[in-house]
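Z., the sequence and structure:
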Amino acid sequence: MEQLKIIKELINQGNITEAIRLLDEYPMTDSANPDEVYYLRGNAYRKQGNWQQALNNYRYAIDLNPDSPAREAHRMAMDILNFFNKDMYNQ
């Protein structure tokens, strides 16, 4: 859990590359909340501007835990994409 706090702080500070690296290395079997790892990875990719990866990771989090905050993040990301760039889905 301590490592997830560090990762959250990296995302908040804008150190996205390092946050994604740590999330990719995070041992999912050790996580009490694997959906949180996917949610954080989605947040990192969203901040990086990689909307497809963000949506994919939010979806993984929702599949693991339907009550995850990723549900709201996914909805908001879809709203943004639908409002700003409908062609984003075709990339």
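The chain has a mean pLDDT of 88. The two ends are 35 Å apart (CA to CA).

Let me know what you think.
H.
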